[in-house]
Structure formats: C-alpha cells, structure tokens
histidine kinase
Amino acid sequence: MIKKVFKTVIAYLERKASIGTYPGMPYLEERRTRLLNLIALPCVPLMFFFCIVNLVQGRYILSAINMANTLSSIFVLVLHYHKRYYFARLFLLGFNLVFFTIAGLYFHNGSEYFLLSILLVTMLVYDEGWLEIILCILVVLAIMLVIFFPQPSVLGAPVSRGRVFANILSVTVFIVFIILFFKRIQYGYQSQVEHQRQALQAMNQDKEKLFSIVAHDIRSPLITLQSLLDQFQEGVLSADELLAASGLLRERVAGLNGTLDNLLRWSTLGMQGLHTQPRNFYLLPILTEAIQFFDLLIAQKNIQIHTRVPDTAVLYADRDQVSVILRNLISNAVKFSFEGGTITVGMEEHNGMIVLSVADQGAGMDEQRLSTLFLNRQQPEFGTAGERGTGLGLLLCKEFAQLNNGDIRVKSLPGKGTVFSISLQKGTLPASANKALTLTTE
C-alpha cells in the first residue's frame, strides 16, 4: 500500500515537473531539469510550513531562512520556465548550501543530512568536472563544520529532538526518491538507446535489401547490353540482324531508364523503411515485364518458358514488391536451368488466394539447403552458366510475401529442378480495366 502511494505521488510530481522542458530537448538535460523541478516543488509548501511553525515558536531567524528557501525554490521554477537551466542549478544548490549550513550551525536541526542530499544532487546534475569538484568540496566542508563546530544558539532556541528526527526522516525519504528517480533516468536512457539501436539495425537491413534490389535490377539489363555490344564488336551479325539488334538495344536502354526511375522511387520510400501499399492490379502484365527482363539470357540459354496465367487474374498486394518477387523467382529459374531447359509458370486459385508457381528443370537443391533457404542470408550461388547472385533474393521474396499476407514455398530435387510457389491475396477489378494480353513465350 505504501509503495503504491509512493508511486502515485512520484507519478503526480513527474506530471507537474515539466516546467521548462520542451519537445526535442536533449534527454539527459530534460531529466535533470525535471529532477530539479521535483526538488523545488515539494520544498515550496514544506519550507513555507516550517516558516510558519518557527515563526509561531519564536525562531524568527530560522523562519526567515525557511522563507528564503521557499522563495529560492519558486525562483528556480521561474528560471526553468525562462530556460535558464545552468543558473537555476547554481542558484538552488548555492542558496540551499548557505541556508542549511546556517540552520545547522545555530539551530542544530539535523541540517547536515540536508547538506548530504545537496551533495548527492550536485553529483547527479553536473557534468563539468571542475565545477562538480568545487561544489562537492564546499558541501563536504559545510557538513564537517555543522557536525564538528556547532555554534551557540545565539540566533534562537534550538529545535526539539522530535523536529530533528522528522528532518532526518524526511531527508532519508528525499534521498531514496532522488536515487529512484535517477535510476529511472538511467533505465529510460538505456531504453531509448536500445530503441534507437534497433531502429538503426532495421534501417540498415532495409538499405541492404534496397541495395540487393538495385544490384539485381540493374545487372540484368547491363548483361543484355554487354552481350549485344560484344556481338557488334565481333561482327557476327548480318545487316538485318544488326538493324534488329539496334532496335533491341534501344529498347533495353529505355527499359534500363525505367528501371532506374523505379529504383529511385524505391530508394525514396526506403529512407523511412520499407512500406507495403496494397492495391488491385492484373498479374499478367507484371509477369510479362519480369520475363522480358531476362529475355536475352533466356535466348542465350535456349530456354523455353510456358505461362499458364489467365489475363483476368487480379492480385491485391503491393505491385512493386510483387514485381521484385517475380523477378527474383524468374531470375533464379533462368540462372539454374540447363541450356535447352524449360520453365513453367502456372497459377491456381484456392480459398481467396492466387497461388503462382515457377518451375524449372535445372540443378535443384538438396534437403540441407532447402531447410535453411529462408532462414538467413545465403552464400551467393553460381548458376549453370556461371551467373552469380547476391544471396538476398529469396529472403526478400519471403519477407515481401509475408508483408502482403501471403507465403512462399519451395520443392526441389537435385538434378531434377525446383518449384517455387507463392500465394497472394486475390483482388478484384472491373472487366473493362483489363488491357493485358495473354503471354506465350516458347
């Protein structure tokens, strides 16, 4: 019960201790300002109460000291309101040092314990080594002076033993309060650092994914361009073939420009992390784009691609992320297919989901590799023609599928090929919006 009341009081004081704080204020500076506010706030009514008590009991000097303490606490709050934090600390600690020393010397009221609390606060609120050392030395000297050199009670009658006991008890509670509050400062600071560390780690992971997308999407058009330029240089093309190849070259440059535009959009979105923006769109056009991305590589390896996707199939997902998934799956299928092989892209509908499969008859994978395929970043594998990947593609596919409320699965046998199946939400669009053409690449 006492602990609950204590926590309630602390929570109330914390809400009232925001004087002088503002959004964006450095964390430790804000905590120190709140700490001084929490010291000053209870001092105002407490010292004013003792001011009245000592005035009634005829201790006029001690009453004046209590009133000075009350006014100094109020002035600290005013200084914080006007953002004079440094002066507020010096004022509060300096005046209390003087007042408590005089009270302890001449009234023997246990002020040395109040001075001990000042020593503790000084060590907590100052970073400057020289100033902290000077203030600590002054406080220690004041404590020793009060304990070992008490003065005759010439300024008024000393306080009763009951008052001394009450003062010691209140200082003990105050010191416990300061320590608990400082621990909360440290825990809060550590929590904030950990939160920032996790946010930075997540941002770095997003950047790594974006770099993988950049490498993947730029590499394939550049390989196409390099292959065409090699054929130009070697003179293996006839005049008609040269004319057709120049048109293909122009098409590839235009496609690369579009890819760079898409990557710029991805990078802009990635500044604040990867976000999923689902919408309805037709599947076939985006699948066509993904396959055309690798058509020269497909031709070089003499691969046949069969697609069995109706032009009415609609997905509800993030189009850019689905595009990345399809390009990765088609790229893997082409990379690990043998020359003259076949890739089949099929589709089924099941319980409101569209399940798209990409099957090849290539190198395949063993059980050990399958069991770790989506668990961590893979070492880049070389394709059947020496193609090299980044090791991030399938991790991206898995994450993007899950971000779109879908999933990805794989079946494979060494030397027999691999089948990737990705399930995504089925969407809806009016029939008049369908402008796609059925794709058949043989």
